Amino acid sequence: MTAGIINMCGAFGGSMSGPNRFNKKGMFENAEIRNKIVKPYLASIECDPLGQNPLPDTDCLMEIPDLREQVEWAFKWQGYRRGPWFYKGAKLCLIWPLWHKAFPNAKWIIVRRADEDIIYSCLRTTFMRAYDDVVGWQFWIDQHKKRFQEMHDAGLDIREVWPTKFVEGDFSEMQQVVEELGLQWDDRAAREFVNPEWWRTRHGS
Q1: How many other C-beta atoms lie within 10 A of the C-beta of residue 58?
Q2: Domain ranges of the chain
Q3: Between 20 and 30 A from 115 (CA), which of 26, 90, 148, 200?
Q4: 144-171 pLDDT, tens per residue?
Q5: End-to-end CA distance of the chain
Q6: What's the pLDDT tens digit per position in 16-31?
């Protein structure tokens, strides 16, 4: 949802994954970067390509040769010419030092959600297979929070957004982020894009 709004407000995302039964509006993740760079790297260091278990230790990451060049080439091949571009990836915080080194001036957006809602979603989603109980998924969430704190402590240029706010009709936080990214806020398009009914369904209400 967050990446979709950023895309419709003018950022280039390239060739992105389309809708599926888990996300009817689309995943808004560049499939080539995910499948040819991120997931193979995780597999090469004997971590889960799905970013579930095991997770990498951010203090012991091997380099990705020419990461910046690989990403920029992928976007150019997909039609990028100029202006802001973005890559959305749930696994990026797991290898954030590599991306920060390749793109030191990047603006990072961390999308937040209540722990219990994340756990509920993981237990209902078939491709989230690492754990089958609340304790396991809580551990997984805590590992991500640890990395978020590492990113803050390292001084990355970070904004955090809570989609529950704009699902409930308050787009002020998202509008501020969009404008700080140098994009043009489109209030009408954002409100038409967000479907509270789907969000409530994922909450089980």
Answers
A1: 17
A2: 2-203
A3: 26
A4: 999 999 999 999 999 999 999 999 999 9
A5: 19
A6: 986 666 666 778 999 9
